[in-house]
Every structure is written in structure tokens, then in C-alpha cells.
Amino acid sequence: VTEFVPRTFIARHFGSNDPLSIFKAAISGLVASTCSCGAIPMAVSLREKGASTAVALTFLLATPWSGVPQFLVLSNFLGVPNTALLMSCAVIAAFLSGLVLSYLEKHRLIEAPKSGVDHANETCVDACSDGCDVRTEHQHVGWQGRFTGVLRNAWDNFRDLGKYLVVGLLLAAALAAFVPTNVVQQYLGTTESPWSILLAVPVSAVIELCSEGFSVFAGQLYTMGASLGVVFVMLMVGVTTDLTEITVVWGKFGRRSAIAYLLVSTTMSIAVAYLINTVPQ
After folding, report:
1. H helices of 51-79, where?
2. Among 111, 156, 257, 267, which one has the highest count of C-beta atoms within 10 angstroms of its own C-beta?
3. Binning pLDDT at 50, 70 and 90, where does residue 126 land?
4. Cβ atoms of 201 and 225 closer than 8 Å
């Protein structure tokens, strides 16, 4: 996407701060298939290329839990139907959060992209805090160079994926070895009240993991008796409260945007997780 999608395409399909653009951003996040680390520079690039703040943050929220790697990992723990349900709910939560952020942006309660920038002549490179960069202008780069960039970015994502999967596996193993199953079932397994979901919020907030590692950790919780809603809220909140993500959103989008992104997405994730627990499993 970052190597081949031109600025004019972004401006045409994601430039308006309206429900259709928000929906497109959520669906784009579904098919982007990247980890949360890779989603950060992509969201920054979207905004630099002309997308609104709400659209870029919607894409950022939808991307990490809607990729092929996450589906494959989660389906081993949850099964294909439950995994498909969570992926669909992730897109819905991202879309609804985007609508709220769009309202806040229209009323200037969060920062909008700076106006008056000549995007046609702008050339820049944005970098997230973990060192991954995004090319935002390609008119002087040939097709061979772009394909090389795709392969390089794919290899970098693969290395990140393996690292966080190992960390997730270690945490899952520690969970199975030291935490009794009845404790998980008692505190995180109830579906009749929202308390298990609310308890999962601070647990996920203190764990600094990429989305793939969280998939393994949350999947292990499910096998030990946690409810599906708890798994969902841990996956969503675990990424949105990630220090790297919040730091980049704060720096690239603005302080108010970062706070609104955190509060809106967390609240929406809790609400959707509660609805998931009402679905017979």
C-alpha cells in the first residue's frame, strides 16, 4: 500500500470526513493484513496524503486485528466461527469509533490535518518510534525499486511477527503453568455481567505486546475459560493502550486526538465485548 497507492487515490477515497470514508477506512484495515507496528506508519501516511484524522485513526484501529496472521493464530484457539465473529466485531467497533471521532473532528474538539499544505509537491518520510519508515512520494522511484521496498517491508514485518509471537507464547506458557484454570473461569469467564470485561481492561493495558503476541496470550486465556468478550476487549484495548501507538498518535496527530482515540476506542470495545458475551457460544 505504502509503495504503490498514490496521494490522489487517498484524497479521493479517504479525504472526506464522512461515514462513507470512515467505512472505507475500516474495510481497508480489514484487508491490510499487517501487525499493529506496521499499521502505525500506514495510518500516519494516510493522514499525510490527505485523509482526515478520524479516517486515519479508524484505519489504525481496524488494521491490527483483521489480518491473515491474526486470523490463523486466533482460529487455532477460538475456532474459525468465533474468530470470524471477533474480526467482524473489530471492524464494527472501528467504524463506530470512527464516527465518534469524525464528530469530534468536525466540531474541532480534536486536531484536524493542517490546511493549506501543497500535497502535490510535498515529499516526506515519516518514521514510527520503532524505526519502520513509510515512503509517501513515489514519482521518482521505478517499479523495481517499489517491488524491492515491498519485499523489504514484508521481511521486516515477518521478523517483527516472529519476535512478538515468541513473547506471546512465553506469556501463554507462563499463564498455563502458574495461573489456575478456575481463577480464569471465576474472574474472566462470566458472561452475565460486565465485570469480567472491565477487569480485562487494566490487565491488557499493562501488557506491552504487538497484536500477534496478544493473539496467542488472549487465545490461551480463552482455552482456560475466559469469555469471548474478554478475549475481544483484551485484543482491542491491548493495542490501543500500547505505549508506542499512543506516543505516535500524540506526536503525529495531536494531544487531543490521542486522548480521544484512547477513550473512544476503549469505551466502544467494552460495549461491543459485552454484546459479544450475549451471543450464545
Report:
1. 53-62, 68-78
2. 257
3. very low
4. no
Answer whether residue 87 shows pLDDT above 50. yes
Q: What average pLDDT does the chain have?
A: 77
Single-letter amino acid code for the residue at 256:
R
Q: Which of 11, 15, 8, 38 is nearest to 130 (CA)?
A: 38
State in Å, rounded, how far the first CA of the chain is from the last one. 37
Name the H helices within 107-194: 143-178, 181-188
- Contact by Cβ (8 Å): 161, 212: yes
Distance CA 234, CA 16 (A): 31
How would you classify the pairing of strands 125-127 and 133-135? Answer: antiparallel
The whole-angstrom separation of Cα 65 and Cα 89 is: 10
- Give per-residue burial for 43-69: e unless 16+ CB within 10 Å, then b: bbbbbbbbbbbbbbbbbbbbbbbbbeb
Q: What is the value of pTM for the model shown?
A: 0.76
Confidence band of 131 (pLDDT split at 50, 70, 90): very low
For residue 54, give the C-alpha cell: 478520524
Sequence-distant (≥ 6) Cβ neighbours of residue 239 within 8 angstroms: 36, 61, 64, 65, 211, 214, 245
Report how far apart, in Å, the C-alpha atoms of 244 and of each of 54, 102, 248 are: 19, 23, 6
CA distance 73 to 127: 28
Asked whether the beta carbons of 72 and 79 are under 8 A apart, the reply is no
Confidence of residue 133 (pLDDT cuts 50, 70, 90): very low
Distance CA 71, CA 215 (A): 9
3-state class of 111 per DSSP? coil
Q: What grid cell was written down for 1?
A: 500500500
d(CA 60, CA 29): 7
Whole-angstrom distance, CA of residue 141 vs CA of residue 261: 34
